[in-house]
Amino acid sequence: MSEEKSNKIKIKAIDVRKEFKEGKRKVIALDNLNLKIEEGEFAVIVGPSGCGKSTFLYMIAGFENVTEGKILLDNIPVDKPGNNRGFVFQEFALFPWRTVEGNIRMPLDIAGNLEEAEIKAKVQEFIELVGLEGFEHAYPHTLSGGMKQRVGLARALVYDPDVLLLDEPFGALDAQTRKLMQQELIRIWQKVSSLGKKKTVVFITHSVIEAVYLADKVYVMSARPGHIKAIIDIDIPRPRSYTSDEFIHKREEVLKYLEEEVLIAAQQNREGLHPD
User: What is the DSSP track for 30-61?
Assistant: First the structure.
């Protein structure tokens, strides 16, 4: 691996269970979920539709509560959102009345602990990092899908969180743009990690190819109720080729674990809608 990790456990899930109520019915989205993610790791979670992977990400973010068990961040239980975590949503989630600059600076405006000159300098640094120079004063409706997600990524990183959480951020993009954004995300992650604190990433996707391209480790979740079925080390040096023998071998290894769970999830989905 080209990146060195500290072997410090950054995120730990211990016997996590999550229940939802659907009318009078109780749905168990996650049960007996355990995992450890190291500081500086790029972790990718894949699983069948309805397995609870997005729910788990929202719990790391503090947007959802744990029903049983616990999630620890730096050995402290997560019970609410915090500025040590940045989040990039599947939908672009930009404020249409704010420019590129205005969207990116929003977390700094809310924090209110920097002078205006510091805010402007920091925002410009991240505009340049994600390759949006010249678009500072553009509004979201004038941007392509890839550009919108660059704004979302810069906004999530601008206040220097330890952990970056991404919920299928490239799912709505065309294939060519998606591939470009995968490459750009690795570049940005490596760059910001080299400048200071190592960024731990947790990335949700339905794409096995995307998972193998991005991850240090791929965590395969079972069908509902979700738990970790397998952990696959992706020990391929970066930059990676989608067509190399190593890449194809790892892709097949992930698929082997995933296919059985997809069949189980398909049967569950025929019986009713379950949370993801």
Answer: EEEEEEEEETT-EEEEE--TTSSHHHHHHHHH
Residue corresponding to tokens 């993610």: 37
Q: Do 181 and 73 contact (CB within 8 A), yes or no?
A: no
Task: Please tell me the pTM assigned to this model.
Answer: 0.93
Contacts with 170 (C-beta within 8 Å, 6 or more apart), sequence order:
149, 177, 178, 181, 182, 205, 210
pLDDT in tens, 181-215: 999 999 999 998 887 778 999 999 999 999 999 99
Laid out side by side, the sheet with 228-233 consists of: 85-88, 163-167, 200-204, 42-46, 217-221, 228-233
Nearest to 259 by CA among 212, 208, 213, 209: 208
CA 215 to CA 45: how far, in whole Å? 9
Do the Cβ atoms of 226 and 56 come closer than 8 Å?
Answer: yes
Helices (H) and strands (E) in the chain, counts: 7, 10
- At position 246, the amino acid (one-letter code) is E
Fill in the amino acid letter for 162: D
- For 146, phi then psi, to 5°, come to -65, -40
Q: Residue 24 has what DSSP assignment?
A: T
Q: Which domains does the chain have, with CATH numbers?
A: 1-72+205-276 (3.40.50), 85-160+163-196 (3.40.50.300)
Look up residue 204 and give its two tokens: 């949700």
Q: Cβ distance 86 to 159 under 8 Å?
A: yes
